[in-house]
Design the sequence.
């Protein structure tokens, strides 16, 4: 079995879905050559599991990256570039995000801006700065078509960001979070349209409602199950599924 992708980067890898993506990628039957697992801060309990994974598996490379800081993203690109030693980055997973439950009554402008900064400005900035490494991977592959093994950007979205579904707004208003993920969906469509000819796929994935710090214990899905689904969906992506919105089981969601 070929690896999903030779060189992968996952943002927000110290906990939750990001950590499990790194774990399943490295413990899978054919692990990538490099898995750049990015974190903001490894101190304390939040960094322990990722540090243990990196100590056990040489392909896991720890890279500091705060998606909202351009200086931090650029330093991460430099470090990844040097570790790739002339090779390209095949798969970029924009997983890092923050949540906000603010209602119409409680929402503050500062919170709207702060969530937007992390969930929209962050991923677009990460995609923009890593683009030369993704283009290098696409050129190296030289084959027709689009896939995660060639070059791809995956944006972690959510069903509650779907404008068409407008899912459970009265029960879970989440104005800042929903608006930010709807904007991220538009970014995904734009990137897919713009980068297709460069050989780079771009798709939005909803991981399900998952038991993590963000999803809480009430969530029905375990992180293991969600990530198993996500990885199998990623393996099947192609030219036909660039610029689409899929859930962790591969079902299509409306924008
Ligand atoms: P968690 O809250 O468990 O983890 C979020 C991760 O993002 C942490 O590693 C956090 O790092 C990181 N992060 C936050 N801000 C930044 C930043 N500025 N720069 C870099 N890293 C940052 O979330 P989940 O694992 O549950 O969610 C992962 C993705 O899946 C998100 O995009 C989320 O929106 C999406 N999603 C999750 C659902 C769920 O039910 N869990 C449902 C639908 C979508 P740190 O530890 O430093 O804070």
Sequence:
């Amino acid at each position: 079995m070929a690896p999903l992708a030779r060189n992968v980067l996952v943002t927000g890898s110290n906990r939750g879905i990001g950590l499990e993506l790194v774990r399943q990628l490295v413990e899978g039957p054919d692990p990538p050559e490099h898995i750049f697992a990015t974190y903001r801060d490894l101190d304390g309990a939040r960094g322990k599991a990722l540090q243990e994974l990196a100590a056990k598996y040489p392909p896991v490379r720890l890279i500091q990256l705060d998606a909202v800081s351009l200086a931090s993203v650029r330093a991460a690109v430099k470090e990844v570039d040097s570790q790739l030693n002339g090779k390209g980055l095949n798969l970029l997973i924009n997983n890092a995000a923050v949540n906000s439950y603010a209602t119409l009554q409680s929402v503050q402008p500062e919170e709207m801006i702060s969530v937007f900064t992390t969930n929209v400005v962050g991923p677009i900035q990460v995609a923009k700065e890593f683009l030369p490494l993704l283009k290098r991977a696409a050129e190296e592959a030289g084959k027709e078509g689009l896939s995660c093994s060639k070059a791809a950007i995956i944006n972690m979205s959510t069903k509650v960001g779907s404008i068409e579904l407008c899912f459970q707004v009265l029960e879970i208003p989440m104005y800042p979070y929903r608006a930010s993920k709807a904007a991220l969906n538009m970014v995904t469509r734009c990137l897919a349209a713009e980068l297709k000819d460069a050989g780079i796929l771009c798709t939005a994935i909803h991981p399900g409602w998952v038991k993590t710090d963000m999803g809480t214990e009430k969530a029905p899905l375990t992180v293991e199950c969600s990530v198993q689904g996500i990885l199998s969906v990623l393996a099947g992506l192609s030219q036909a599924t660039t610029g689409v919105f899929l859930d962790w089981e591969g079902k299509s969601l409306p924008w």
Remarks:
- The chain is about 40% helix and 15% strand.
- The chain has a mean pLDDT of 97.
- The helical segments are 16-27, 45-56, 70-84, 109-141, 175-195, 223-235.
